[in-house]
Design a protein that fits this description.
The complex is a heterodimer of chains A (about 425) and B (about 270). Chain A has about 425 residues and is an alpha/beta fold. Helices cover about 40% and strands about 10% of the residues of chain A. In chain A, the strands form three sheets. A six-stranded parallel β-sheet of chain A has the order 3-4-5-6-7-8. In chain A, strands 9-10-11 form a three-stranded mixed β-sheet, with no helix packed on it. In chain A, helix 4 crosses helix 6. The radius of gyration of chain A is 23 Å and the shape is globular. Chain B folds into two domains: about 120 residues, no CATH class; about 130 residues, no CATH class. Chain B has eight helices and eight strands. In chain B, the strands form two sheets. In chain B, strands 4-5-6-7-8 form a five-stranded mixed β-sheet, with helices on one face. A three-stranded parallel β-sheet of chain B has the order 2-1-3, covered by helices on one side. In chain B, strand 4 and strand 5 form a beta hairpin. Chain B is elongated and about 65 Å long. Chain B starts with a strand and ends in a 22-residue tail after the last helix. The chains are: A alpha/beta (about 425), B alpha/beta (about 270). Chains A and B meet through helix 1, strand 1, strand 2, helix 2 and helix 12 of A and helix 5, helix 6, helix 7 and helix 8 of B.
Chain lengths: ~425, ~270
């Protein structure tokens, strides 16, 4: 099989993994031998016809797989075209794409061949060639195969910028029924190893700047949404847990696209829950950047996110007694909770107030989305909307177009992302 | 009074400083701006003035200010010169970086213009496509604003061992970088860049739109075909969404890409 054919098969097989960020690592180019650098904010190189950004060459090393996970297109019992790159072939392809500025680097995952460590060995060899023979200094994100030994994780963490172990199914019950060859411990053990090594490595780097790095861009994971009956509250509690226990940089959500018929899975004709995925990302943002706790967003009483309202508007609708707030007096945390005010515009309000009292007409230039924020703000003694709407009316006014359109894929431009200190 | 400067940033800063020293009634004109009926004074550009003013503003107002001013000036938004003068005047009065005072129209205009320029520059870090011609990597771009001064360092560091050029067809200028050398911006004679620009149309199937005197026809690069194929394979038909694609990657930028957006053949109807 030609390289181009392999690329089509193994790119196609990898495209359902949603993570494609090249952010979190800053490495300047070497003035000596070698090619490449990484940029902390990441760079998108193109956007596919479904509107998703391509930043990295995202491929599987092989889509041959010994596992038979019910939800996966590459499961062993499926009749799909199979291919495998030789490590040298893929290293070469990455370099050549990189030199033409098509990509920021490589995102490598793989089907499981023989066992976890054999597969990891092939991935390690690919990255070793890339780093040590081709002297590649660009970005590398690699998927750790569940069940990989600490030795394999250690080697791959030294070669990669970001490593991730996919949780995929949000509960142990789902995992046992749909992915019988994977055990929860196989997923948790490498995650815990990565988290420990990362914190040790941070100390090493403080003591000695030239210490070898271990996954400097941290670890992330992915959860499949809509394949199993798990509710949003379970998914968000799990992701909170993952952030705090394993120091995750990101928990990605992937709307399940039915590929296999299975009694425990949605019918093949059902549409992927893209709007739900979008709402989960919004909730994730509230937890990471807006200082919300899971239980403020969803709880056992209302276990799923409202599809018509973004989760912050939904929270504000449940707490109308806290509004309106005075934009000239409210502290930063209070501003963050106003629908229509983001991290950036809250910071701008705080900065702009130094010049003098803000009036309602000053708010739009600060980047506040007045369509929503006007119902929750007063400025210089005036309510920002014409009148106070009834709750039912307010709900309609706050509903975003996503609900009507069906969905909107959740994507922010990288330069829009707020810069948040570690552990904030 | 109106002050006219040559088209350099240094010339603009000389004129801006003259405005700041005066009582505030002056206005700065770029070359080619419509000549008002009032007297126009031509400002003599002071050599080395940009550096001196830059370090003054940086210590006095904050390290971000010189960059913000330079980026805003690059935007060529009509009237940005006077907005920059008002922006600096406010900063000097308050003794701090005025960028936070967005309720002031001049600050809003300057910050917006500088964001427009930096966003365009960041975008082109990703969408520059090098085509290999012999041993030289060539790229042609048509950015909305002049991004070359802002992207040269990035490419020169990342690809320090490559000889490359990035040609801005709209402005007839190019970054030229010899392998392991220093990059510079050179003017490219218009006949070399003999390309009509109609912006919106994507190539008509011929590859001619990417050819200049620099690019003699060469053997097709196999990696271009591979990239195209890969790009098509990555689209998920169930998520097909050209509106979203175009909001990130406007169609006017498609013609210089290798990958042919919109070419994925597995879109679902509707």
């Amino acid at each position: 099989m030609d390289v181009i054919e392999k690329l089509a098969v193994l790119g196609d097989a990898a495209r359902f993994d949603v993570a494609c960020t090249s952010s979190g690592s800053e490495r300047s180019a070497s003035s000596g031998a070698g090619v490449g650098s990484t940029v902390a904010g990441g760079i998108c190189h193109t956007w596919t016809d479904d509107g998703r950004c391509i930043s990295l060459l995202k491929v599987l090393l092989t889509n041959h797989c010994d596992y038979d996970c019910a939800y996966c297109r590459n499961r062993s019992s499926n009749d799909v075209p199979r291919a495998a790159f030789r490590p040298e072939e893929l290293a070469m392809l990455t370099i050549e794409f990189y030199r033409r500025n098509y990509i920021e680097g490589l995102f490598l995952s793989s089907g499981v061949v023989r066992d976890a460590d054999h597969t990891m060995g092939l991935m390690i060899e690919t990255l070793r060639l890339l780093r040590e023979v081709h002297l590649f200094r660009g970005y590398v994100h690699v998927k750790v195969i569940p069940g990989a030994s600490p030795e394999a994780v250690e080697r791959i963490g030294r070669l990669a910028d970001r490593v991730s172990v996919n949780v995929e199914l949000p509960s142990t019950r789902s995992l046992l029924s749909l992915a019988p060859q994977k055990k929860p411990a196989d997923i948790e053990a490498p995650m815990a190893y990565i988290a420990d090594r990362r914190s040790a490595n941070r100390e090493e780097l403080v003591r000695y700047r030239g210490a070898p790095t271990f996954a400097p861009a941290g670890q992330s994971t992915q959860l499949i949404v809509g394949a199993t009956p798990d509710r949003d509250v379970q998914i968000l509690r799990l992701s909170k847990n993952l952030y705090s226990r394993f120091d995750m940089k990101r928990v990605f959500f992937s709307a399940y696209i039915p590929t296999n018929a299975h009694p425990l899975l949605p019918a093949l004709t059902s549409a992927p829950p893209l709007l739900r995925e979008h709402r989960l990302y919004q909730a994730d943002w509230l937890m990471r950047f807006y200082r919300f706790d899971v239980e403020e967003i969803v709880d056992s009483g209302s276990p799923d996110l409202d599809l018509d309202l973004d989760p912050k508007s939904a929270w504000a609708m449940r707490h109308l007694d806290r509004f309106p707030v005075d934009v000239n007096r409210a502290d930063y945390e209070t501003l963050l909770r106003v629908p229509g005010i983001g991290v950036l515009s809250a910071q701008r309000v705080v900065a702009a107030r130094r010049l003098g009292r803000l009036r309602t007409e000053d708010l739009r230039p600060l980047g506040i989305v007045m369509k929503r924020a006007r119902f929750f703000l007063t400025a210089a003694g005036r309510y920002a909307a014409e009148r106070i709407p009834q709750a039912a009316e307010l709900r309609v006014l706050l509903a975003d177009k996503c609900g009507q359109k069906g969905y909107a894929p959740f994507q922010l431009r990288i330069e829009d992302l707020p810069v948040v200190a570690e552990g904030a | 009074m109106f002050l006219r400067y040559d088209d350099t940033f240094e010339g603009f800063l000389t004129a801006a400083a003259a405005c700041l020293r005066s009582d505030g009634a002056a206005s700065v004109l770029r070359p080619g701006a419509q000549i008002p009926l009032l007297p126009v004074q031509v400002v003599e550009t002071e050599e080395g003035f940009a550096d001196r003013l830059g370090s003054y503003l940086s210590t006095r107002l904050g390290p971000e200010v010189p960059g913000t001013v330079y980026q805003a000036w690059l935007s060529l938004v009509p009237g940005i010169e006077d907005a920059i003068v008002a922006f600096l005047r406010l900063g000097l009065a308050k003794r701090r970086d005025p960028s936070g005072f967005l309720q002031e129209p001049s600050v809003g205009a300057v910050v917006k213009a500088s964001r427009k320029v930096t966003a365009e520059a960041h975008f082109f870090l990703g969408v520059v496509r090098f085509r290999l011609r012999g041993s030289v990597y060539l790229s042609e771009i048509e950015p909305a604003v002049d991004v070359l001064p802002l992207i040269g360092d990035h490419f020169a560091q990342r690809f320090h061992d490559q000889s490359f050029a990035i040609h801005d067809l709209r402005r007839g200028r190019a970054i030229v970088h010899p392998a392991e050398g220093r990059w510079e911006i050179v003017d490219v004679a218009p006949e070399e860049a003999g390309n009509d620009r109609d912006g919106e149309t994507v190539g008509d199937g011929t590859d001619d739109c990417a050819s200049t005197v620099w690019n003699p026809p060469a053997r097709p690069d196999p990696y271009e075909a591979m990239w195209k194929r890969y790009f098509q394979a990555m689209a998920i038909e169930e998520r097909f969404n050209p509106t979203c694609q175009r909001s990130f990657l406007p169609k006017k930028y498609w013609r210089h890409l290798v990958e042919e957006p919109g070419s994925s053949d597995r879109r679902v109807p509707g």
